[in-house]
Task: inverse folding
């Protein structure tokens, strides 16, 4: 049974990140297969072999790139990338407002640049004069580091997205403000999917951070999940969204680190005669809506490593209908929270200007759930996508992401900055 659940979770993962349907490989005989070569796309600007890191990808387009190690209050060391200025503008001396970009679950900083210099938000922002910081969550490829714990230590994986928001995002904001060196007191924030959840968790649990936010752009915001139209969550939720033996068994483990075996699985699961193909098709871009070069690069740089608790916490939300902290079970809840059930996030305390970008065809962030969240936010702006087919992944890799998402976001930030300076 546990194998079954692990398989179900794997499929949940695959459905989220499977991005292409390449030829099938023989799982019994894949010695010597060069995955980097298989994913390579000759039309892409970026070489995949050898595997490039975020800063290499940035430099491949001639932009300056920096890697910073940010230590959180609870000892995790997060890898954060920065594009400090634009080589086109040569604006290193000018005032460059800070913006922080935060990826979704199983993703990494790579996801903000794979669309290339003309379409990726990170490059567009730096060319618009911003100091661009690209975050990583604890546990992913770039954030497998701790002041005391080794990643092999089971305690390393005892976190969900609550801690990513509460500690990692807070630390990145403070670090960027300090390092920028221009006396800025606040930043712009852009998050996709889990990158929105962690923001909402931080801003409600530590409301003093609202003062550090100029604008927040939440793409496909995920908080309440009970209307989510995601078959695998419905299938696994009843088992894993409560304190069952299954959930306990899977708790606090590393889930799918980046490695060749996973890439093989990814290849085969979404291959032409796969049983799961319909999920891959339904959820991802065999529909011609997506930039396949960017999707291929994302496929090879993902999965970036997460704790199973991040999934369990989401499934708890889907089952409970609450947006609340992690459920450890009655006994430990009493110790940790002083109550048998975990506390709801007080989202009404999120006073910063919050823009919600959402769509009808989003299988993770249902319109009803986004609107329920919005009702609690005192200072929000709603941006409903006109395109009825726009889905969760479109916010990252749709052909027209520049027109529908990136350009409007940058305009909102520019307006904010212009108002400051006039
Ligand atoms: C871990 O963090 C330390 C301290 O910031 C840093 O010097 C080191 O390079 C990091 N290691 C990895 C593998 O990122
Ligand atoms: C697709 O992404 C690649 C970079 O990965 C970029 O070079 C190309 O311009 C993009 N194409 C479109 C039409 O967005």
Result:
């Amino acid at each position: 049974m546990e194998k079954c659940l692990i398989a179900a979770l794997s499929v949940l993962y695959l459905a989220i990140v499977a991005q292409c349907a390449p030829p099938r490989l023989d799982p019994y005989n894949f010695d010597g297969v060069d995955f980097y070569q298989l994913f390579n796309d000759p039309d892409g600007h970026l070489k995949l072999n050898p595997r490039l890191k975020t800063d290499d990808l940035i430099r491949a387009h001639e932009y300056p790139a920096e890697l910073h190690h940010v230590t959180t209050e609870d000892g995790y060391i997060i890898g954060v990338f920065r594009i400090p200025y634009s080589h086109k503008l040569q604006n290193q001396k000018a005032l460059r407002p800070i913006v922080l970009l935060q990826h979704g679950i199983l993703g990494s900083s790579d996801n903000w640049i794979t669309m290339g210099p003309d379409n990726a938000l990170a490059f567009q922002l730096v060319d618009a004069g911003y100091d661009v910081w690209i975050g990583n969550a604890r546990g992913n490829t770039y954030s497998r580091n701790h002041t005391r714990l080794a990643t092999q230590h089971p305690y390393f994986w005892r976190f969900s997205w609550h801690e990513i928001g509460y500690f990692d995002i807070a630390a990145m904001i403070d670090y960027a403000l300090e390092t920028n060196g221009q006396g800025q007191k606040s930043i712009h924030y852009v998050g996709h999917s889990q990158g929105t959840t962690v923001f909402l968790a931080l801003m409600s649990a530590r409301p003093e951070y609202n003062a550090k936010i100029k604008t927040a752009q939440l793409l496909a915001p995920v908080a309440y999940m009970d209307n989510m139209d995601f078959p695998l969550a419905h299938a696994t939720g009843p088992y894993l969204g409560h304190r069952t033996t299954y959930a306990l068994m899977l708790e606090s483990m590393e889930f799918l680190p980046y490695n060749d075996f996973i890439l093989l699985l990814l290849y085969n699961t979404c291959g032409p005669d796969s049983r799961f193909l319909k999920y891959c098709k339904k959820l991802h871009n065999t529909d011609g809506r997506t930039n396949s070069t960017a999707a291929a690069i994302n496929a090879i740089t993902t999965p970036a490593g997460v704790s199973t608790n991040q999934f369990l916490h989401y499934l708890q939300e889907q089952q409970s209908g609450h947006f609340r902290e992690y459920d450890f079970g009655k006994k430990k809840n009493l110790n940790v929270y002083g109550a048998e059930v975990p506390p709801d996030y007080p989202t009404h305390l999120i006073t910063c200007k919050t823009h919600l970008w959402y769509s009808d065809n989003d299988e993770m962030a249902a319109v009803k759930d986004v609107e329920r969240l919005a009702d609690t936010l005192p200072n929000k702006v709603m941006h409903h996508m006109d395109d009825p087919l726009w889905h969760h992944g479109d916010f990252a890799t749709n052909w027209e992401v520049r027109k529908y998402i990136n350009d409007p976001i940058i305009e909102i930030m520019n307006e904010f900055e212009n108002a400051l300076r006039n």
About this structure: The longest strand covers residues 77-83. The first helix runs from residue 2 to 17. Residues 109 and 134 are 6 Å apart (CA to CA).
